[in-house]
Amino acid sequence: MADKYTKKITNEFVKFGEPIEGDDSDFVKELSGILVSIDSITMQDKPVGKYKIRNEETGITKAFLGSAILDDLLSSPDVEIGSDIKIVFTGVGKASPGKSGLKEFDLFIA
């Protein structure tokens, strides 16, 4: 009897930014596809967005965590589940003394 389970669902967790020496995470500068999930998790007693985008050509779903700027962009009324979006990491903004700069992004909607 043939196995009826033929489609493998693949999820990858990615981080936006430049690779850091010693960190084997998958860093990306750009991510595009269909927004399939918007969720929220708590980290350090603060809510953080958790998102998934599926690339229709490859079938691969990539998950990523938001940031202050990214969460704000993705909470736009123009963005909803099923939107075809592209997120581009544009760099790290100026830092305040004693703090690291915020990651900055551009968001495009098809």
Topology:
Layout: E1 11-16, E2 26-28, E3 30-43, E4 46-54, E5 61-65, H1 68-74, E6 84-92, E7 103-109
Parallel strand pairs: 1-2, 1-5
Antiparallel strand pairs: 3-4, 3-6, 4-5, 6-7
Give an overview of the whole structure.
With 110 residues, the protein is mainly beta. The protein has a single domain, classed as OB fold (Dihydrolipoamide Acetyltransferase, E2P). The protein is 6% helix and 48% strand. It is built from one helix and seven strands. It has a seven-stranded mixed beta sheet, covered by helices on one side. The longest helix is centred in the middle third of the chain and has 7 residues, at 68-74. It is globular and about 65 Å long. It starts with 10 loop residues before the first strand and ends with a strand. The relative contact order is 0.22.
